[in-house]
Amino acid sequence: MSVDPHDKGLIAQLRAPWASMLAESPRAVKAFWVASILILIALALADVVVHHHAHFEIDGTPGFYSLYGLGACVLMVVVSKFVVSPPLKRKDTYYND
Amino acid sequence: MIEFPPGLILVLGALILPLLGRGPVMRAFSLLLPLATLAAVWMVPGDAQVTWSFLDLELRPLVWNAPTRVFATIFSLMAFGGALFALNQPRRVELPAAFMYAGSAVCVTFAGDILTLFMFWELMAIGSTIVVWSGGTPEAAKAGQRYVAVHLVGGVVLMAGILAHVFALKAGGVADPIALRYFEFGPNGFDALSFAGAGDIAPWLILIGVLVNAATPPLGSWLADAYPEASESGTVFLSAFTTKTAVYVLMILFAGTELLIYAGMLMAVYGIVYAILENDMRRILAYSIVNQVGFMVCGIGIGTEMALNGAAAHAFAHIIYKALLLMSAGSVLYMTGKRKCTDLGGLYHTMPITMWCGIIGALAISSFPWTSGFVSKSMISQAAADGHLFLPWMVLTAASAGVFLHAGIKFPWFVFFQKDSGLRPKDPPWNMKAAMLLFAFLCVALGLGYQPLYDILPYPATGPEPLYEPYSASHIVSQLQLLLWSGLAFFLLLPILKRTLTITLDFDWFYRAFFPGLWRRALKPVVDLLVNLRDLFFDECIKVGRAVTQADALAAQIPIFREWSLGSAMVLTTFVLFVYLIVGFLH
Question: ipTM score of the complex?
């Protein structure tokens, strides 16, 4: 997991040391999760301050976009994985055999 | 002043390109041609009108339609980016074929009559098929065969619709039945789309022919089948032109056709579901093309000026970030030879430029604020909201969240992060890096300075009011919520998103497995049986003959039943047709 010692400067920076850190340190992962969740909550709460020009009733509700984004993704993943995939899933050599 | 279709620079240049060998002259030329095309697009005068006589028809290969400028510009720009990315590729026919393909796409956008449009439409099919075949693998050869078969059938359906409509117009006494304006079915002139209506079949056939190229399910499984089988650089070209030319044609012919709202919603969701289940990194991106084109098709169905502007702007932005994503994936494939997410991971260690360009493309496709997707896609959602189209708005918003899930995070995560695959490839050669950096720059530049794009949209702002104001606090906050919370969904659901060595059957199963299987298992045995019966029957005849004549040696040589070869049957058919033609002329 070490960075090539011959590369320095910008390129080494671009190599995203934070990604190595996350991969190696459970504490960093935990800190990352806590920070992320705080940001998510702050974003959802921002609706109280920011005025949305609602076109339908539902999109004016505070936190609507947060919950809808989360809910829609969970629904799409669950439907893909447990409804669409089981009857249509094949080994990736299916057409070659 | 330019008095010819600018796309011809690429189409004709494609014919010269193979004569220049593989040296620096050819390379310089391959970068110059797209730039010359781009310059020519912008030098065509606003009132340009060129007519060519063909048989007894007046073709108009050079007119400005409302969305011409934005599409012709991005097609030329894309040809340049693709050529830069392909500069080091060794295949001899791929680039000329790609230029013929790109140039024909530019020519479609300048077509003022349906025949010119159709001719270049078909030339695109030929060019793109050669690009698929240039992949060079047995899989590419087979996928190319399926690809060209689907597109030729689509072309026949389109031509049938065109002919039906032309003859109807002629019967109605129209002097110029191929003019594009008679094919603008739109919301009002398209009663035929209500099944109960007495309308004729022509608009249906034309719509189906175009939707094949737009990759609308169930007509669109050719896309995810063929595109990932092309070479690293070939797929970059393929991602740009076919579906977006279909978007252009839909915009010209079917703007405001309600059916397209539903077709677009279907595409947007279908692309996400299939991409979620996919393991091949370039096939993930291929499915997400369908998803993104779904947004555009939906916008065209809504059909207001805001929606059409949004669809055109989104096509422009989409071509850049999708090419960028496929360049990033292509670089990974080029350096590692691997294409499955299950084989990849941890590439951030040694491919920083590829990774960052991939991430920028992923943010742009997700419409992250300050990227090109944010200033384009939101116009379509805005149009749905303005029209109080609740269901389309909800579906498009959910699909926007899903884009971040299936392309925005999934692609970079599985390729550059997740587990460590142990692979330590370097970034690709300089030209591939340069192409990625150029398109990554454009993704961000368009997100920050969107005005030049807004100025060339089909319906630019007329008064002092801005066309659309993407950066309101409300819009930024709502979009960030939508995206980051769907990012949360991704990491929460990571255990069930883990990739497996599987594919998901699509509609191409019917022509890849079902019909071949039906032939092998059900029809061929019957045919074999009939052949055996025939052989048995004639064998028996010979035996009876032998018994009767008592001349065994002689009878065995009597040609009682001789098969005709296909060749002689063809000669006979050709001869009959030839005689028929002569008689027809004399008559």
Answer: 0.84
Question: Both tokens of residue B454?
Answer: 């807004």
Say if B497 is an interface residue toward chain A (CB within 8 Å).
yes
Mutate to test the interface with B, among A77, A78, A94 (most CBs of B within 10 A): A77
Q: What average pLDDT does range B237-242 have in this prediction? A: 96
Q: Report the gap between the CA of A61 and the closest CA in chain B (Å).
A: 11
Separation of alpha carbons B489 and B39, rounded Å? 45
CB contact under 8 A, A70 and B388: no
Do both B269 and B128 map to the same domain?
Answer: no
Specify the number of domains making up chain B. Answer: 3
Q: Are B286 and B174 found together in one domain? A: no
Q: In terms of DSSP H, where are the helices of B172-280?
A: 202-214, 221-226, 232-254, 259-277
Look up the pTM and report it.
0.89
Contact B480 A23 (CB under 8 A): no
Question: Same structural domain for residues B211 and B298?
Answer: no
How far apart are alpha carbons B150 and B128 in whole angstroms? 12
Domain extent at residue B124: 1-253
Q: Which of B46-55, B183-192, B244-253, B306-315 has the lowest mean pLDDT?
A: B183-192
pLDDT in tens, B460-481: 888 888 889 999 999 999 999 9
CA distance A3 to A18: 12
Say whether both B245 and B354 belong to one domain.
no
- Spell out the domain ranges in chain A: 1-50, 53-92
Nearest to B286 by CA among B222, B338, B331: B222
